[in-house]
Amino acid sequence: MAKKTSGFTIREADLAKALEISHQQLAQIIVFFDSDPNDQWELRENDHFIYLNKSLNERLFSEQGAYAIAKYMDEKATKSIWSRITEFITRHKEKIRNAFISRKIQENCSSLTVKNNRHFLSKKDVVNIFCTSPARLNTAFNEIQKSHEPMKIYEDFDEIDGVRYYSLSGFYKLSQHLGKALTVKDRRGWCAALEVVGKKTFKLIIDEQTAWQKKIEYAMYAAKKRDHSQCQVTGQKYDKFNKSVNVVVHHIYSKKHYSHLAACQDNLITLTQEVHNEFHAWNGGFQKPCTVEHLIQFVNELYPDNYEVILRLNNIKKMLMHDSLSQK
Question: Do the bridges between strand 10-11 and strand 113-115 make them parallel or antiparallel, or are there none, so unpaired?
Answer without folding.
Answer: unpaired
